[in-house]
């Protein structure tokens, strides 16, 4: 798996089942068995997916009596949001400059818009 945290997070979320698990954990903690219930995969497969999410820092596990609930670590999304927002702002600025150039060009009748 990639070494830097952002690459680990994006790699972990590249799998649709893992993205679905993250979406389900956004509404509350769940055990491995609870997470495995709707999928047609083994509990061991779900555990392997959770391990990938855990290594990416997206989830953590704790112990509550006999339960080991899985928690979503939402602060990891700040890392992704910062990265995405940077490129979204750059793209918007590029489109704004293009709009300015297009609006300063004369239209077909020779008049500027």
UniProtKB/TrEMBL annotation:
Pfam families: HTH_20. InterPro entries: ArsR-like_HTH (IPR011991), HTH_ArsR_DNA-bd_dom (IPR001845), WH-like_DNA-bd_sf (IPR036388), WH_DNA-bd_sf (IPR036390). SUPFAM superfamilies: Winged helix' DNA-binding domain. PROSITE patterns: HTH_ARSR_2. Keywords: DNA-binding. One of its GO terms (molecular function) is DNA binding. Residues 1-91 form the HTH arsR-type domain. PANTHER family: SLL0088 PROTEIN (PTHR38600:SF2), TRANSCRIPTIONAL REGULATORY PROTEIN (PTHR38600). This is DNA-binding transcriptional ArsR family regulator. The lineage of its organism: Bacteria, Bacillati, Actinomycetota, Actinomycetes, Geodermatophilales.
